[in-house]
Structure formats: C-alpha cells, structure tokens
Amino acid sequence: MKTIGQIIRSARIAKNYSFDDLEEITKIKKNFIEAIEKERWQALPPFSTVLGFVKSLAGVLELNEKNAVAVLKRDYPPKSLVNINPKPDVGRKFFWSPKLTFTIGIVVVVFAILSYLGFQYKRFISPPALEVDSPQESQQIAGVSVLVFGSTDYDAKITVNDQPIIVNQDGKFSVSLGVSQDTKEIDVIATSRSGKITEVKRDITVTNK
Questions:
Q1: For 79-101, what is each residue's pLDDT tens digit?
Q2: pTM for this structure?
Q3: CA torsion angle 47 30 4 86 (round to 10)
Q4: Residues 113, 135: one domain?
Q5: Full residue range of the structural domain in which residue 119 is found
C-alpha cells in the first residue's frame, strides 16, 4: 500500500513536473513538497497546513482529494512524535490582486481628501498672501492720484487707506487712489475669511507737479 509521499511523487513524475514546477503552480515552497514526498514531517508546518498542501497538490496532480487526505491522516504520525517548528517558514510569493488594487485606490483617495482638507484648513487659518507692486517704498507721486495694484488670495478682502477694493478671480487688484501733499502713506490690508490680516505700508511723497 502506497504512502501519501509515494502517491504524490508518482503523480508528479507522471506529470513530468519538477519541484520548481509545482512550486510555481501551487505556490508551495519546493522544500515542503520534497519533505511531503519523503515524509519528513519534522521539516513541515503543523498538520492543518500540511493538509492544505496535500489538497492543493492533489488538485494539481489530478489525484482523488478525499483519498489523498485519508492516506495523509493514516500516515501522519501522532503529535508527540512530530517536532513542529512554532514559526515555520511558510513562504508566499507576492501577487498583485484586484482586492489589493481596490484597497490601495481607497487609501490614495482618502489620503488625497485628507491632504486637500488639511491644505484648505491651513490656508483658512493663515494670513493671506499680499504683494503690492505699486507704489514702491518712498516713491514720489507727481499728481493728484496714485495707481495702487498687486495681488492676494482670490477670496481675500482688500482695503487701501481704508477704502474697499475689488479683488478679481485670480487675486489681482487695482485702484487709482486720490492723494494730496498731506498723503504720506499708502496702507494696503488683506483680510482672509477667518479674519487674519496681512498689511503692507508704503511711504510716499506727493509733489503735485
């Protein structure tokens, strides 16, 4: 009467499979397959794992699974005679599965949403950006008006010397502000939705010439 090791070995040879072939097909490490054929139970994982190996091998080698399991149970020694490795090296090769793709996709989407919300929150609580291109510091103004323009956040509010100025969709603002010789300073204030402010002051000299 053949043992389980002999049955699997005969079927493998009949199929002209090497240990490497079976490892590739079943994903069972070839040293485990060889250990089953030679019935070296001490070199194998616990019985429940070996049982799964035998079922997988029976399917690939076109053996009767029930018969293979029955022979394994007959041949497998009592637990007291098997020195089981508490942490067997049951290696598994990595495969990219649809489930993994879905999981990674969910993680990426969640990360993107959290990053966007974090960016928006930081932007909400931070003072707005503000650049004043004109006038320049200590600029001399000849006339009764000065052109004030620059850029800020698109949703910020701008005042120039306490006068509200319209900000367009790309954050640009521009205004021709009336001045006199008494006007010594241009004060531009940008206010965010959360009430944070950024202020730029430019000293000017009005000559009215």
A1: 645 554 545 554 556 667 788 88
A2: 0.44
A3: -20
A4: no
A5: 95-125
